[in-house]
Amino acid sequence: MVEEARAGEALFRPVRTGNPFEETVERLLQAIKLGVVGPGERLPAERDLAARLNVSRVTLREAIRALTEAGYVESRRGRYGGTFVNERLPRPRRVGPKKLARELADSHANGGGLEDALVLRSALEVGAAEAAASRSLSGGERDHLLRCLADTATAKLADYRRMDSRLHLAVAEVSGSPSLTSAVADVRMRLNTLLDAIPLLEPNIEHSDQQHQAVVDAILAADPEAARQAMHEHLAGTAALLRAFLS
């Protein structure tokens, strides 16, 4: 589909020359963890993927081997073979709030930390929602956004973070900017490390689903100000929870 190809273009962009193996692993994990390639789905063909990442097929195979050993993908032979995302993905590393708070304090001393991540996320995602609502979306883009919204609203608890990530990435995708999509993917991976340290709360999930609906409704109604406000309100709720648990 056009929208899935757009996500692939953003995440499977050429890696920098300094650390091709490490960055190839990073790009593949982004695509898996953010739901661009879901459980049971196949990664792009090796030749195509190596060309898109601008790495050798040897480097790509080494990265795939590493993800296979880590439990994220499996390779299948035959006519319908290829590299497939495992149906059951490894659980994210759980870091206790107190330990993560100490790590964040150290990061803050070096220019990073919780507030840095939250400010960056707000700037990117609020802008993405506004940009998406400012465009005339194609039928495929509208369907893609609605499908990601429905997948999030009906996700099982164990899949909620991934589906939530996919929806937020979809908003960036329909902004029409691959560079913005790449930036949102990067900050979402960073944010998910923080979210994995706090519990999933049912009332918050229900509230988030309502806010997701408001964001998508505003985008589809081509109302940039409403989309901006709805996304700002949604991100503020997540930020409040993160501060409460991690500050």
TrEMBL record:
Keyword DNA-binding listed: yes
Molecular function terms, GO-annotated: DNA binding; DNA-binding transcription factor activity
Superkingdom to which the source organism belongs: Bacteria
Residues annotated as domain HTH gntR-type: 18-88
Xref: SMART domains: FCD, HTH_GNTR
SUPFAM superfamilies in the record: GntR ligand-binding domain-like, Winged helix' DNA-binding domain
Pfam families: FCD, GntR
Keywords associated with the record: DNA-binding, Transcription, Transcription regulation
InterPro entries: GntR_C (IPR011711), TF_FadR/GntR_C (IPR008920), Tscrpt_reg_HTH_GntR (IPR000524), WH-like_DNA-bd_sf (IPR036388), WH_DNA-bd_sf (IPR036390)
Protein name per its UniProtKB record: GntR domain protein
